[in-house]
Every structure is written in structure tokens, then in C-alpha cells.
Protein 1
Amino acid sequence: MKTIEEEIDECFVGPLTKIFDGGEAPEGWNIRKKAEQYNRSFHNQVWMIKFHHRMKPIYWRLLSGDYSESIDCSDVLYPVSLWMYAYDELGKLVGEHNIMDLLNSAYYRAGGLYNFFHLLRCIMDQSYRPYIKQWPENAIDKELEKLEVSGDSVRGEMLCVLSAYLMIEHTDLSEKHKDFLEEQLEQNWDYLTNVYSFMVRRIVGSHFKGFVQIINNVAVAQSFHPYVHIFRKAVLMRKDELFVTPKSKEKLARHMAKLEDILKTTSQREDLDELCNIIFGSDFEEMMKTRYMSYDELDEQRRELQDSVGKLSSEMEKVTKKFAEAVESRVPVDLIETQLLRLDPSTASAIFGNLSLLLAKDPAWAKIQPELSEKIMQKFMPQTPVVNCGTYYGEGAMHEDHRSQVYLAPESNASNKMMLDSKTNRQ
């Protein structure tokens, strides 16, 4: 006689594993018929505990998106999801894995955000909250910081959801009040994505192409009007960063006028103030202070660097040519030397090296090259500082008295070590 576990594996886990792997359902097997066949067992608490335990690998594959796109698979997903959400230890199952695996799954699957929110609300009701501390907060923050230049609307929206949950969790509020705020978050998410778009400098949760369209969206949506005071603050915080051209500033002014009119004509509600003060508070703003260059900005930096290097190379070539002509024209050596030593050591050394190649066979250059090289090298050497410890001139002395001077030189310089001996030590 088979055990309950063996029966569950044979009738549910085995066929579902095969289907999730992309295979066909066993001949004559139908998930709904099986559910009807075991209807009485599904109302047996002991049996259901064993059922959920055996189904955990299937639940996780459903959550993480590890299943095929076959027709047979699509037929079983909904019934399996109903069983999964009825599992009272689903929060623990999710907590044993990386939350980012679930975000990635939601990102690639249809209805991702809805399912993601639904899952979070479900597991929060099952005492999942302690597992939030295991979320990779630094990685989430880093992705949010980079959204402006390397993110997309869909993934960005899900990252904002996780950020909001983290900000709520960091408060000292009771679990009951945290639950209330998380419920507010989900219920008002359509509005909050407009605020988030400005706060993260990336449009999230919509297909709008520009930030002016976001402002217009808030202006025309009547349900958003009681919370325009929150959205307006976000726009003002980011206006200098997001509206930089004269044309964009002009558009901003026109649309901001619409928001001002709404503030004058619509009574503002305060019921989202607490939530927004938490999820967009000082911690969030501190995180968003880091700005990464956009691809256009990086390309501009690249062009500027190329131009600068090109100009410098051209100027160096011209100066080197002038020095070479001076040597070949037998301009006095002291004049050439004076002009070359006016340059900083690195530039002088670079030009000297180029001249040595250009004038390798020139006898005049061969004559002055060694001494000039030595003088350029001396420009790289730090000057040895001298400290006067007092004046000890004898009465009527006409010479410099060096007896009280201390020469400061690196300890590794053996030739100067003796100069550190004081007058007292020599007595």
C-alpha cells in the first residue's frame, strides 16, 4: 500500500514536474479531474500539510518562473497558484530564497507587477516580515541609483516596490501599522509611480516618453488631484536636473501652472503624507544623491577628451618642431635651454625625448644633449629644504655661517645623512 507522500508524488508532483519541464501531461491525466478526485483529501488538514510539503519544489518553480511556455503548462498554472497561496508556510518558503529571484521572474512574465504585489501582500500576512532583513538592500539601492542611465520602466517599477517595503520596514512602527502602509502603497500605486518617476529620474510604471507627459498625466487624472501637493514637491526637487534646455523649461512652466491651478481649486488630502514621508524621506534622498552619467553625457565626455588630447598632441608637435628648427638654425644654446626649462618637468621631458629622436644625427644637439638632460632631470628632484636654527655669526664676520643649519633629506639618502648631525653631536 502506498503512503500518502507516494500517492501525492504519483498523482500531482510527478506529472506537474514533467509538464513544467516542457513535456506533455501523462495520458488521461487532468489537473482539474485530479483535484475533484481528491476533493475530500483537500479538506483534510493532515493530508494538506503533507500535500503542501511535497509540492514545495513545484511552488518555487512557479514563483521563480522555472517552467515552460507549453499549452499543457498554462493549463496547470492557475490551479497550482491557488494551492500555493493557500499554503500557510509560503512566507517561509519565499524567505528561504533571494527576493531578487522573484523580481526577475515577475519581470519576464506577463502580469508580473500584479503577481509580485499579490505575493508580497500574501506573505506579509504570514509573518514573512523578518525575512525582509535578508533582502540585498545595497544591490537594490545601487540598481535604483543607476535607473536613470541603465534601467527600464518595468524592472524599475518593481525595484521601487521593494524600496518602499524596505523604507517602511526600517521604521519603528507596529506591524499592524506597517501592514496598513503597505496596503496604502498597493492601493495608490498608480499615483505613486508618477512621484517615483521623478524621484528616481526614470519613468517607471508607464509608457510615457517624457517627464512633461508625467506631469500632464497627473494634471488630467481627477483621482490624483487631492495629492498634487506631494507630486509637485517631487517635480520641484528634480526640475533643475530633468529640464535643462530652454524649450523643456518652457514646457515645464506651462504644466506647472496647471498643477498650481489644481492646488487652488482642489482640497488636498493628507492621508498619503505619512507614507510618502517614509518612502521618499531623507534616507531615500541620500541614496539618490549619487548620479551616474547618461550614455549621452559619457559620449560627450569622450568627445571632449578626444578633442583635448588631439589639441594637446598638435601643440606638442608644433613646439617640438620649433625647438628642432632652433637647434638646426644654431640659435644660442642658453636661449634654447632657458625656454625648454621654463616648461614643467613632464612637458620638458616629453619634448626633449622627441627632439632626441628628431635630431639624433645633429652634431649641435649631440653636444648639448647630455647637460640639458641632466638639468631636466634636476627639475624632477625635490629641493632640499634648509632650516635655520639661529644666528651664530662672530663679531665682524663677513662669511655665511652654516653651523646652525639643519639639512632635511630622506633617510634613504646616505650621502646626506651626515648633514643631519647637530653641532652638539660633533663636539
Protein 2
Amino acid sequence: KHIRTSNPIESTFATVRHRTKRTKGCLSRKTGLAMAFKLMMSAQKKWRKLDGRNRLPEIIQGVEFRDGLRQLQAAA
């Protein structure tokens, strides 16, 4: 399994960009925003949870992982 990008915001915008490029006719600002909103709500249903999401606090603290294993840093 894979994802196109690790950035969920970019992934959502890519979905909206993909659909709005193929829309025929002029859109008003109001209908464009409504269509973008509906596309984002539709994309949200297909999001999957990150593998290893329970490790996020460690990643935020700066702990390094290689191939899913925590790397011990040697004292310098």
C-alpha cells in the first residue's frame, strides 16, 4: 500500500485540482467553492490512518527510526 504524498493537505488539493481542471464552462466563485468543498468531503472518506500513528509523540520529540525500529544514539 502507498500514498501519493505524505502531506495530507497537498493530497486533498491535488484531488480538487484534478477535478476542477476537467470541469466545463465558467464557474462563479460561489459554485467553485461549493464544488471544492464537496470534493474535499468526498476525498476525506478515502483517507486512511497512518501506520505507526502511536509513534507520533516520539517522532515529534526527535527520536530517529530506521525501517520501523527505534535507533539508539551513541553518546559522543
